[in-house]
Description:
Largest sheet: none
Helix content: over 70%
Order of helices and strands: HHHHHHHHHHH
Shape: globular
Low-confidence stretches: none
Strand content: under 5%
Structural class: mainly alpha
Number of helices: 11
Radius of gyration: 17 Å
Amino acid sequence: MERLDYFDDLKDLGSTLFVWLERFIEARRALQVEGQYGAAVTLSNTASEVLLDSLLSNVMWESGKDPADVAGVFAEGQLAKRVKTHFSQHLGGSWILDGNGAVAEWFHRCYKVRHRVVHGGHSPSRLEAQVAYDAVLKLSEYCWDRLAVKRKKFPRTALMMLAKDGLQRRGKWCSFMRHFSSTVAPSEGSWLRESQKWREDVQAVLMSRQ
C-alpha cells in the first residue's frame, strides 16, 4: 500500500519519476504487443532522457544548487553534453559515450537509432527495437547502481528513487541509511514536492531566457 500511495503521489505531482516509468511501459507495449518498432525505439529513448534528467535534477536539488545557476545545464537538445559533463562529478563511474559500458551502449543503440528514426525516416527491425529497449534497461540499472554507491551523499534522492527495497537488493541498506530513514526523513518536508518545485523553477528560468 505504501508503494501504491507513493506512485499515486508521483502521478498527482506530474513527477518525472512517474513519467519515466510510464514511457518505459509504453515502449515495452509497443515492442511486445503492438509490433510498432519505431515507436518502441522512440519511447525507449524518451524514457531514458526523462530518467537521466530526473536523476541529475534530483542530485542537483539535493546538493542545494540554485536553479538560476544551473538552468543552462538543462537546455533542450543538450542531453549528450549533460551526460558527458555532469554525471560523473556527482555519481562517479564511467559516463563516456564511446567505448564499452551501459552508457555508451545506450547512446549508440538507442539514442542514435532514435535520431535515425525521427530525422532520417529509418524503420527499425524488431531486433533493433529490442536492443534499444534492453539498452535503456541496462542504463537504468547503471544509474541506480551509481546512486546506491553515492547514497550517503544523496540519501534523499536514493530513498526517493530506489527506496529501501532497491538499496537492499544492491546490498546498500546500511546503518547510515537506516538512521537517516528513521530519524532525519520524518522531520523534513515532502522531498517529492520540493524536488519537483526545484525542477519547475529551472524550467521557468529556461523559458524566461528564450
